[in-house]
Design goal:
- This protein is of the alpha/beta class.
- The chain folds into 2 domains: about 230 residues, Phosphoenolpyruvate-binding domains (TIM Barrel); about 30 residues, no CATH class.
- Helix content is about 40%, strand content about 15%.
- The protein contains 11 helices and 8 strands.
- Strands 1-2-3-4-5-6-7-8 form an 8-stranded parallel β-barrel, surrounded by 7 helices.
- Helix 2 packs across helix 4, helix 5 packs across helix 6 and helix 8 packs parallel to helix 9.
- Bound molecules: 3-methyl-2-oxobutanoic acid (KIV).
- 3-methyl-2-oxobutanoic acid binds next to strand 6.
- The site of 3-methyl-2-oxobutanoic acid has 11 residues, from strand 6.
């Protein structure tokens, strides 16, 4: 049996210059499939609010929804490290509330680590959470929970903003995060941050020089037809495959071709 991936394994991968692969999963069957594909980490991302629940953004996702999905993924007993996103307003009100909610994600959800969006502004939370041995993955740059401040999903850290993103990265590392997602920032800046930090950087829309990459499973499988960001590579086109299968079923039931004796009990 392959060995379960741990936080020290992820840190070692940066030392060994071995690229880290992370992919989202929100339920038991996809967790099994993603884990079989060999990823190093599974992220139960709050992107589920968009690609699973059909909301326009991630702000509507609740703690209880995240725990429900994290539990389903944990039941697949993945070899991959299991990281769960902390949803909007679960860690913003007070440090006490953040600690309780992050603890719930490990205790009730079965996650090994939590992901928290924010840079210098969230370091007090990251410091408190890591001080009670809850591993934290940071997330800076284009942080989807800040959609209203950013005025949409826009690339962050261009020109004079670059210094602030670098400061965010250093602050998150110093606050105790074991890894950091860099989303939607120029490739050159992501490369500089990756060189500067001792913790692994995991990029999404941040170019090829991060220590690892993460993508949303629905995006790579062509299941999210609404919108496909520039940084997504579609490795399969499953939407027409699924629609065709359903159409065949509908036609066969209507024509009487299904079910046959083969699918019936005597
Ligand atoms: O919610 C999510 O899936 C994420 C990744 C895209 C990094 O935060």
């Amino acid at each position: 049996m392959r060995k379960k991936i741990t936080i020290p394994d992820i840190l070692q991968m940066k030392q060994d210059k071995q690229r880290i692969t992370m992919m989202t999963a929100y339920d038991y069957p996809f967790a099994r499939l993603v884990d079989s594909g060999g990823v190093d980490a599974i992220l139960v991302g709050d992107s589920l609010g968009v690609v699973f629940s059909g909301h326009d953004n991630t702000l509507r996702v609740t703690m209880d929804e995240m725990i429900y999905h994290t539990r389903a993924v944990a039941r697949a007993k993945p070899r991959a490290l299991l990281v769960a996103d902390m949803p909007y307003m679960s860690y913003h009100v007070s440090t006490e509330e953040a600690l309780r909610n992050c603890g719930r994600m490990l205790q009730e959800g079965g996650a090994q680590a939590v992901k928290i969006e924010g840079g210098m502004n969230m370091c007090h939370v990251i410091r408190a959470v890591t001080s009670i041995d809850i591993p934290v993955m940071g997330h800076i740059g284009l942080t989807p929970q800040s959609i209203h401040r950013m005025g949409g999903y826009k690339v962050q850290g261009r020109k004079e903003q670059a210094e602030r993103i670098m400061d965010d990265a250093l602050a998150v590392q110093n606050a105790g995060a074991f890894a950091i997602v860099l989303e939607g920032i120029p490739a050159v800046l992501a490369a500089e941050i990756t060189t500067e930090l001792s913790i692994p950087t995991i990029g999404i829309g941040a170019g090829p020089d991060c220590d690892g990459q993460v993508l949303v499973i629905h995006d790579i499988l062509g299941l999210c037809e609404k919108y496909s960001p520039k940084f997504v590579k579609r490795y399969a086109e499953l939407a027409p495959v699924i629609t065709d299968a359903v159409t065949s079923y509908v036609e066969e039931v209507r024509s009487g071709a299904f079910p046959t004796k083969e699918h019936s009990f005597t």
